[in-house]
Amino acid sequence: MSQPQPKKATKRSSTSMPHDLPAATLKQPQHNARLTSRQQSTLTSVQELYDEQKYTQALKVADTFLSWFPDNVECLSVKALILAHVGQKSQAYELAHQLIDQSRDNVASCSVAWHTLGRLRHQDRQYKEALECYHKTNYSKVILKDMLKSYTLARDLNGAKDTYISLLSPSLEDESTTKKKKVKNGKTLKTEKTKNNKYWIGLMMCYHLMGKNEQALLILDLLESSLQDGEDGNNTTSKKMEHSEIKLYRCQLLEDSKQYDQVLDILTNDQDRILEKQHVRMTVISLHY
Predict the structure, then answer these.
(1) Domains in the chain, ordered, with CATH?
(2) Of 197, 195, 219, whose CA–CA distance to 208 is shortest?
(3) pTM for the model
């Protein structure tokens, strides 16, 4: 699928999304560049208070900041989310739509506005409508994570699968990732290699639930290889559990693929690495009878 053109928001299907994504994440509106340190601190406090679920305080601080910069998209977007949490949903939606209308000529601001409306829809369990909003954004990593939540709750495996693939795209890096890559030492490289394991695991489970066990097994091979590369002689209980769970999940995938002989081979040859001994015995018995 071709890369979306963000200048004009066009309606896209909620079950498809591009794999080729813009390398840069969203930037703050340009007028934030002229904020004083005190004003920037106030704006930061709005987001922090919202994250801490201190909505009344957050709304008060947001109104203070907006008295200085009434058109600040970042603050207005957070205010819309705050209003939804203090029982003013109609005002929240009205503000979100106003943001979309006033941001049509600014790509970054327009993306923030659609993301805000999408989050409001998600809060109201309108997952398909939320996804329609997310598909009109710039697809930053934060937005992709929110998309993944909506796809999951909408039970849309294909959409979730495509979103996991996009999150694993090497072109999608946030600022912290870029900074870390400048530190070329073993610890940082190991962190970079394993930090996306949760996305690989999610993608593997999507393939499994979709009945595509062969693709799931390929990803499991990658995860097992990553785990072995990161051991460095470490034989902790945590590592033993990870190895055990990988072996058991491989058995489940093979059993679902009706490859029973391979399951028995793993349970026989690798039984020392599997901690769930009772599960091994029960599986062997069930496969024999």
Answers:
(1) 30-173 (1.25.40.10), 186-288 (1.25.40)
(2) 219
(3) 0.76
